[in-house]
Each structure stands twice: as C-alpha cells, then as structure tokens.
C-alpha cells in the first residue's frame, strides 16, 4: 500500500507532462525540453524512497519506473504507463464525491454466489425487490433473511406459483411484507430499489449461480432517483396478491 503522497506526486507529474505537451505543440518550447528528468525534485529531500532496508536510496522517478507506473522513451522522455494512468483514474474516482461503482460478478457454479446476492439485498434495508419470475423458494429466503418489504412479480408467473407465494406471505412473519403482480410486459429488469441504494440483477434469483454468471450493477444517484419514480408507478398500478399484516377491511388499502 502507498500513502496518498505518492499519488499526489504521480498526479503532479502527469499534470506537468500534459502542460508541457500543450506548450510543445504550440511551439512555445524547443525540442530539447522534451526530456523532463534532469535534476528536477519530485519529492522532498528529507523523505526519499528506499529500495529495501539495506539497499541505496532511489529517487521518486526511478521508483515509479521500477513499479511500472512510468517509463522512459528512447529520447529520455518520461511518460505514464497504462498502469500508471489506471492508478490515477482509480485514485481520482475514490476521491470524488460520485457514488462508488461497485459491480459484483456472481459466477456460475460458485456456491457463494447466492449468499453474496442475499447479502447485497439485505444491505439495501427496507426496499422493493422486482423479479418477474421469482419463485417461492427465493421469496422464503428474502422474507427470512432481508428487510425487503415489497416484492413485485409479473402476471406471466404461473398462477400456482403465485398462490404458493401468497400463502408464504400471509403466514406470520413478524414484519411487513407485500407481494404484488404487474401486468404482462411492464417488468423487464430485475432490481432492488431502496432509499439509499439501488442495483440491477442480471437474471432472476432462481437462476443465480447455476448456468451463467450474473452481474449486480449499482445505479448512480441520478439514475436511482429516476428509476424510483417508475417503480412507484408500477407498484401503484400492480395488483395485490398477498400482504402481511392483513389489511383491515374497514380501512382502505391506500390509507395509513
């Protein structure tokens, strides 16, 4: 692991390199300025890098070259390697205020794929799960091991499957859970939408870890807010299959 000072110096070197190329292309610099090594100090003299406990100290530039972050060309010029540029992009992404883009790949045949999926769903907290072809076995796991309070399936799901899921929901679960059914063609993607998180699931829960790898893709904040509007409309238009605790017959379904 390297502290942020290394990335700061690497970024400074990259910025200076870009500035130099811009000035060179406009004719402001002569060709012999192409080499930027010289005697330039890139780190403070009192904290030089070391190459092993008993080895002589090495300069910052030599250190980057040995790591494969930078490279010299035939003319002695210095540039970033693809690895160096990738490290800068990664560091910039980590420091930005944007949402982290944490994509998860669930491999087929990996016994941890399904547990990892359940963990991600559980981390979403009180959220809505959309899976057009969810089955009763997966609904049982969701009910027992997550805080999902709303589940939406498609009318294309066989009637007998919906009946089994209704019985499961209506059993005493000690927490609210509602199952609704959207009309054919409304639902396409599988996703989890919560107040502070949202992600899409590459396939139905009943096929996770079986035949093909599956990707969990987080939605950035802007997309999450827009998708939440659509999901709420789908939910309001969907037909209720089962709900726990049961709705008071004297109280309209939409009232609180």
Describe the structure.
With 256 residues, the protein is of the alpha+beta class. It is 37% helix and 19% strand. It is built from 7 helices and 12 strands. The strands form 3 sheets. The chain has an 8-stranded mixed sheet with strand order 5-11-10-9-6-7-8-12, with helices on both faces. A two-stranded antiparallel ribbon has the order 1-2. It has a two-stranded antiparallel sheet with strand order 3-4. Helix 5 links the parallel strand 6 and strand 7. Helix 5 packs parallel to helix 6. The longest helix has 22 residues. The protein is elongated. The two termini are 53 Å apart. The relative contact order is 0.11. About 10% of the residues have low confidence.
